[in-house]
Amino acid sequence: MKEEKKTRLDTNKDMMSEEKLAKLQKISLFAITWPILIEVSLQTLMQFVDVFMLSFVSDEAVAAIGVVNQLLIIAFVLFNFAAMGCGVVVAQFVGARKPKDVSATISSAMVMNLLFGIVISAIIVFFKEPLLGIFDLSPALMVHADIYLVIVGGTLFIQAMVFTIFSVLQAQGNTKDVMYVSIGMNILNIIGNYLFIFGAFGVPQLGVMGVAISTAICRLLAMFVLFYLLYLRVEVKIRLRDFFTFQKAYVKKILKIGIPGAGEHLSHSASQLVITMFITVLGTVALSTRVYTLNYAWVITTFSMAMSKGMQIYIGQLVGAGLMDYAYKRMYRGLKISLLVALTGAVILAIFGEFFLGLFTNDPDIITIGAILLMIGVLIEPGRTTNMVVISALRSAGDARYPVIVGIISMWGISVTLAYYLGIHLGFGLIGVWIALMADEWIRAILMLFRWRSRKWQNMRLVEDERSTKMETTA
């Protein structure tokens, strides 16, 4: 009798696993990822367009905005922890088919991020002088940086909402919605930049201030559209009173993923901030070269970023459905594709580096040094791509602490230390800094791969499948 019950239970579990697998296979990794690829490409394009159009103002304007963006990136990380954690939890609840839990998670994350975003915006505006003062910028650069920081930094709470809704829509599989909104943001951003930088159609020619205003307006309009889309897409509607109620169980799950995930990103951003401070010692040419080169580096990593986001959604849903072996294999497939694309892009940039940099500037020093950095990028990209994809997969499975611990040790012990030693102490400049970045990326990538192969993440699932529990109880 006991054997019959056990056989029936195993059969029921197998049937349920096959049912889950069949449903999740219909939503392939490619189907999730291609709209994200376009969305990430468009986000990268926004940065690219801003830098390109600002280059018509001056190299000093580009250098100033590059410095400010290092501060803003840290702010993004601080309020992105809720968006990231919410995305992972929502993906697992979607995989486990729990729509009520999905809505409760979303409402908790949105309130948390709005409040946090407002606080961060206020801190940036009121403490802008000491924040910019750490870079010891020249008066010419400080004028541009101050204006941009006040306008864009003061409206960061809007970006907090945009990030959160982007994350939850994608976690539910609605990646096309995010793609369409990103397309609209880019079109408006290009139009706004053109009007304010060149003073077209009688619009005041505001330069850096105009770019900042254009960015803020685009984000505000995107936020309103995203709120509407979210209302349409959630299966269980979120009520107004839900936004005034914190449910500890959901907040705890969000923070379990969000805080370590944010810690890793914060460590990376802070380490890059310190490295930027090193580079300021090298002068405006070095700062401008860094900004131009990193913009092309972001173009290369666009596909890897999209794959990592898609991986987070896909692996999260698979883990939520209890399909661990399938999740394990699919990560490797996505990683192989990402590496192939990233290496191809890096090689193309390395070969035609001087031509691409010449699109931004005529300064021979910037072009020469930047071309060398793009060559080093061929060696950096495999490590960077592996980190992006594998860390996203680990995080989506609930294993968020290991990447941040390894990241803090490597970023500060290797990246920052070597950047100073090679770039400043030994006098290799930006080339030394880039070698330090390469060492950091590769060491972390190797450790992340070992972690995935250990399968320890399989015991860190955030949700339980109620139907499995019921079936076991009934049996």
UniProtKB/TrEMBL annotation:
<feature type="transmembrane region" description="Helical">
    <location>
        <begin position="366"/>
        <end position="383"/>
    </location>
</feature>
<keyword id="KW-0812">Transmembrane</keyword>
<feature type="transmembrane region" description="Helical">
    <location>
        <begin position="61"/>
        <end position="94"/>
    </location>
</feature>
<dbReference type="GO" id="GO:0005886">
    <property type="term" value="C:plasma membrane"/>
</dbReference>
<protein>
    <submittedName>
        <fullName>Multi antimicrobial extrusion protein</fullName>
    </submittedName>
</protein>
<dbReference type="Pfam" id="PF01554">
    <property type="entry name" value="MatE"/>
</dbReference>
<feature type="transmembrane region" description="Helical">
    <location>
        <begin position="404"/>
        <end position="422"/>
    </location>
</feature>
<feature type="transmembrane region" description="Helical">
    <location>
        <begin position="27"/>
        <end position="49"/>
    </location>
</feature>
<feature type="transmembrane region" description="Helical">
    <location>
        <begin position="178"/>
        <end position="201"/>
    </location>
</feature>
<dbReference type="InterPro" id="IPR048279">
    <property type="entry name" value="MdtK-like"/>
</dbReference>
<feature type="transmembrane region" description="Helical">
    <location>
        <begin position="106"/>
        <end position="127"/>
    </location>
</feature>
<feature type="transmembrane region" description="Helical">
    <location>
        <begin position="207"/>
        <end position="231"/>
    </location>
</feature>
<comment type="similarity">
    <text>Belongs to the multi antimicrobial extrusion (MATE) (TC 2.A.66.1) family.</text>
</comment>
<keyword id="KW-1003">Cell membrane</keyword>
<dbReference type="GO" id="GO:0015297">
    <property type="term" value="F:antiporter activity"/>
</dbReference>
<keyword id="KW-1133">Transmembrane helix</keyword>
<dbReference type="InterPro" id="IPR002528">
    <property type="entry name" value="MATE_fam"/>
</dbReference>
<dbReference type="InterPro" id="IPR047135">
    <property type="entry name" value="YsiQ"/>
</dbReference>
<dbReference type="GO" id="GO:0042910">
    <property type="term" value="F:xenobiotic transmembrane transporter activity"/>
</dbReference>
<keyword id="KW-0472">Membrane</keyword>
<feature type="transmembrane region" description="Helical">
    <location>
        <begin position="340"/>
        <end position="360"/>
    </location>
</feature>
<feature type="transmembrane region" description="Helical">
    <location>
        <begin position="428"/>
        <end position="450"/>
    </location>
</feature>
<feature type="transmembrane region" description="Helical">
    <location>
        <begin position="273"/>
        <end position="291"/>
    </location>
</feature>
<feature type="transmembrane region" description="Helical">
    <location>
        <begin position="311"/>
        <end position="328"/>
    </location>
</feature>
<keyword id="KW-0813">Transport</keyword>
<feature type="transmembrane region" description="Helical">
    <location>
        <begin position="147"/>
        <end position="166"/>
    </location>
</feature>
